[in-house]
Design a protein that fits this description.
seven-stranded mixed β-sheet, mainly beta, elongated
Length: 118
């Protein structure tokens, strides 16, 4: 099994930047992609950014132009940097790994709270 441990988050001011880190451990050979999702209060979990092993990337519409994903395949880590923060970026941010063993499965971290103050 794969375990994900996140760090970073907290209270940040609008207009600032945040950086979140995530490290995977366990049976990491099956990881085919890593990234970040977030969930605002009362809303569904949504994609922030993800990068697959083959280089394909996908970004959430609301963060395009403000997000940078740093993925180290050898170390099984993924860092998220989000700039020009807005109050609507507030939410719980979850690290995600797509793991393929018998079939593709999503593995989630415990989540880290990000609050953007206006």
């Amino acid at each position: 099994q794969v375990q994900l441990v996140e760090s970073g988050g907290g209270l940040v001011q609008a207009g600032g930047s945040l950086r979140l880190s995530c490290a995977a451990s366990g049976n990491t050979l099956g990881i085919s992609g890593m990234g970040w999702y977030r969930q605002a209060p009362g809303k569904k979990r949504e994609l922030v950014a993800i990068k697959m092993n083959d280089g394909r990337r996908n970004y959430g519409d609301s963060v395009i132009g403000r997000v940078t994903l740093f993925r180290d395949n050898a170390k099984n880590t993924v860092d998220l940097q989000l700039d020009s923060l807005k109050p609507e970026d507030t939410g719980i941010y979850y690290c995600n790994a797509v793991v393929i063993e018998v079939m593709a499965e999503d593995v989630w971290g415990q989540g880290t709270q990000v609050t953007v103050s206006s």
